[in-house]
Amino acid sequence: MLHDLIEAFRKNGCCICYLIRKRVHKYMGDFLYEQVNDVGIREQLRKSLGFCNIHAWQLQKLGDGFGESIIYQDLFETIINKLNNIYESNNMLKTFIKELSKNKNLDNFRDKNDICLICKQEKEWEEMYALSFIEYFHEPIFKKSFQNSFGLCIPHLLEVLKKCKDVKLFKGIIRIELGIMDNLLKELKEFHRKHDYRFSKEGFGKEGDSWIRAIEKIVGKGTLL
Ligand SMILES: [Zn+2]
Ligand SMILES: [Zn+2]
Fold it and tell me: Any idea what the Cα angle at residue 136 is, between residues 131 and 140, rounded to 5°?
């Protein structure tokens, strides 16, 4: 795990975002290949009505129509059954109409606690990497690699801080992040300055993509491939 994190620090962007993206990609491939026929998984998918918007389309991009058709047959049967019941019973119809304004879109057909399987996995990995981050922070090679990296995106910084029980460690992480963010802010200001017509001939240096890194810093990379 230490090795994974050090390797991730060398990539562009937040190390936890990078590691999660890598795992999600592998998980999806394995999922379509191995788990589509698993009875327990199929049942879970019926309950969550498949995946969230982002993961459903990410999975689609892998192009496995065969695996997907198995999943979506189940989902259509689930929805058709529910809609049929609503159509047939006036009591169910009344309740359904009442619930429509309270629930968010697909939550009308599922329990709000049954979230997308891949989102659930992501959350577990996020927690695991946040804990590892804290565990390895005292290692000089870890700290040095962190210092020389993009740092963490703010959502993952907060996830790490949430798990940090030691004030000294807490402050150590914030101090390094402040240094990284201060540099990014300077680059943003430089990028902005060069848009002034008086300086526009100077050309851009490493601050050229600072506005993109700033977006990633605030919201994270997400899992879009
Ligand atoms: Zn991140
Ligand atoms: Zn999801």
Answer: 155
pLDDT tens digit string along 151-164? 999 999 999 999 99
C-beta of residue 143 within 8 angstroms of C-beta of residue 176: yes
**Nearest ligand to the C-alpha atom of residue 153:** 1
Percent of the chain with pLDDT over 70: 97
Per-residue 3-state assignment (H helix, E strand, C coil) for the chain: CHHHHHHHHCCCCCHHHHHHHHHHHHHHHHHHHHHCCCHHHHHHHHHHCCCCHHHHHHHHHCCCHHHHHHHHHHHHHHHHHHHHHHHHCHHHHHHHHHHHCCCCHHHHHCCCCCCCHHHHHHHHHHHHHHHHHHHHCCCHHHHHHHHCCCCCCHHHHHHHHHHCCCHHHHHHHHHHHHHHHHHHHHHHHHHHHCCCCCCHHHCCCHHHHHHHHHHHHHHCCCCCC
Q: What is the mean pLDDT of residues 56-70?
A: 93
CA of 32 to the centre of ligand 1 (A): 26
Q: Which pTM value belongs to this model?
A: 0.86
- Mapping DSSP to helix (H, G, I), strand (E, B) and coil, where does residue 197 land? coil
**CA 59 to ligand 2 centroid distance, Å:** 10
Q: What is the residue type of 138?
A: H
Q: Domain extents for the chain?
A: 2-118
Closest ligand to the CA of 116: 2
Distance 212 CA to ligand 1 centre (A): 14
24, pLDDT greater than 80: yes
